[in-house]
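Handout, section 4.2: multi-component inputs.
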Amino acid sequence: MILGLLAMLAANVAVTLGAISITQRLSTGRRSVDAVLLLLVRYVLIAAAVLATGLARCLNPIALGVLALLGLGVWAASGEHRRLPRVAMPDLGKALWLAAAVIAGRLLWQVWFLAPYSVDPLSYHLPKMAQWIQQGALLPYPGADVRETFPAGFELLETWWCVFLHHDVLIEMAGLEFLALGSAATAALARAAGLGLRLSAFAALLYAITPAPALHATGCMNDGPVASVMLATLALAALRAHPLLVVTAMAAGVGLKPTFASVIPGAALLYFFERRTPLLPVRVKSCAVTVAVLAILIGSFWYGLNVARFGNPLYPVGSLDTVGRASKSGVASLGSRINDLVGQAVYDDRDQTTVQFILTSGWGLVMFACGGVALIAMARSNAALRNLAAAFGVTLLLALVLAPSGSFYLRFILFFPALGAIAVAALCERVPAISPLPWAAAILCFMSTLRPGDLSGSDLERLMERDWRSRAVEPFQDAVTRTILCLRGTHDDSNGVSYRMYGPGFTNRVVYLESIHSVDDLMAQLDRNQTSWIFAQARNGDGASLRVILEAVRKDRLDRWSPGLYRVSGAK
Amino acid sequence: MTETPSDRRARIAEVSAAVALLIWRVAVLPLPGLLRDWVAILALYWIFTVFAQRSKAWPWVTVATIVVLGGIYVHGQFPHTLEILGIRL
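Output:
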C-alpha cells in the first residue's frame, strides 16, 4: 500500500509537471485558455500512460511508478524545472476563494466517503476497469455486458486513480478532474464574453455547484466529463485557439462518448463568428501537433478496437438489435423532449436529483431563476454572449436530436447551465445589487447536492461508518471471498451491477457466463470454476438463464443470499 | 436617442420570438399551469425588456422576475432538498 501510495504521488507529480511544461509550449498568452489546456493535457498524458501500459500488459503501480520516475528524470535533466512558471494566485476576493474552498472540501469529502453507486457504472463502465486492474492489461474485456465496448476514455482516468492503491476509494477523483476542466472552460467562455477575472471565476463557481455536473463529478458517470470537454471545445473555439488545440479537445471528447460530437457544429459556428479575429499564437507548433496526434490516437482507439473486433466502430449500436433499438434517435423526438425539458424537467421537482437524470434536468436554481433572465437581459447588449448563446443553442438542439431513445436524454445536455452561469455573472456586473440573489441560489444548489438522490440517508450513513478498505454501497461482497460467476448483461433485459462483485479492493475473481442451459449445467459451471457463488441480476437470453437459477433455488440446489446473489446449498 | 431601422427590425424580431414562445405555451398548457410556466414568464420578461430596458423600473422588474422564478422552483424542489438534508416536514 505504501509503495502504491508513493507511486501514485510520483506519477501525479510527473504528469502534472509534464502537463505544465507542454502547456508552456502551447501557451496562447491568455491565462484562461492556458488553464483549460493544462487540464486537458494532463488528461491526455494520463490516458496515454494507462492505455500504453494496458496494451503492453504492465498496467500496475510499479511500471507506472518507474515510468513516472523516468519521466521526472528526463524532465529535470532537460532543465524544465528552471522554466517552471511562478504561481501567482489570481485576485478573486475573499468570498470567491472561500466559496471555492467550501465546494472543493465538499467534493473531496464525497470522494472519500462515496463508493460507486449508480447502475450504469456498476453494470458496464466499471467491470472492465476492475478487470484491467486485476489482469494488468486492457485486453481481453471481461464480457460483463454488451455495452462494455463503448468508448472508455473516462474509465482510463478512473483506472489511474484506482491502479496504484489497487482500490477504488479515490475513483471519484477522475470526475473531479473533469469538473475542474468544465469550470475552467466556463471561466474561459466568460472571458470570451468580455467578463473580468472575478466575474469569470464567479461563473465558473456557479457552474461547479450546478446539481448536474456537481453530482456527476462524484457519481462515476461519464456524461459530466463529456459536458466538461464540450465546454472546453467551445471555449477554445470562442477564443480562437489554434485549430490543433480544438482538435485535441474534440479527440479527447469523442474518446469519452460519441454523443460528444453534438458540440462540433456549435464550435464551428463560434469559429465562424470570430473569423475576423486573428488566431491565438502557439509557441511551439510541433508540440501542438504531437499533443493533437496523441489525443486522436487515444480518442479513436475504442472505435478502432470495435472495428477490429466487430467490424462496427459503434458496436453494439447498429449491430445488436436490442441496443440499436434502444439507441434510436431522431428529429421526431425533438418536440417532446423540448416540451419535457422546459415544461417539467427544468423544475427539478419530480424527484430528488439523481445522476441518472431521468426526471430532473439538474440545471438547478441558478439556471432556472437567474440564468434565463440574465441571458435575456444581457444577450441584447453583448454580441459575444449572443454568439455563445447561438452555439450553445445549436449544441442543445443537436444533443436533443442525437440522444438515444428513452427517458434519459437529460444527461446529454449537462453543459447548458454554463451559459446561464456566464449570463448571471454578466448581469451582476450590469446590476451589482442583484448579486445576493445568485449567491443565495448557489447556496441552495449546494445544499441540494450534499447527498446524491440515488443513495438514501441510511446508505450514506452505512458508507461513512465502514472502514475505507471495505467501503461499498452493498455490503454483500463481504460474504464473497474468492470467485463468483455473473450473468452477462444485455441492456434491454436489465442491468447486472456486477462491479460490486469484484469488491472495493478488486479481490474477487469474476467469471461471466454467456448462458446456462439447465440446473445441472449451472452446477457444473460452478464446480468447474471452484465457486459456490453466482450473481444473477441481469436476465440474459430473454431471462432463460435467470429462470434456470430460480429453478435451482426451487430445487434447493441454490440458496438466495441477498437480492441477485445466490449460493450453492450447503456450501461452506 | 433615435432608433435606427436595424434597431427597429431587431426589436420586432425579438418581440415576435417572445410572442411565439408565449403562443406555444398558451397552446400546450392550461391557464393555472401557465402562471408558473418558466418559458411563459421568461417570454413576458423578454417583451418587457425589449421595451423598457432603459427605464428605472427595469432592474426592479428583473429582481422581481428572479424572485418569482426562484419561488416557483423552491416550492417544487425544496422538499427534495429537505429530504436530502434529512429533514422531514
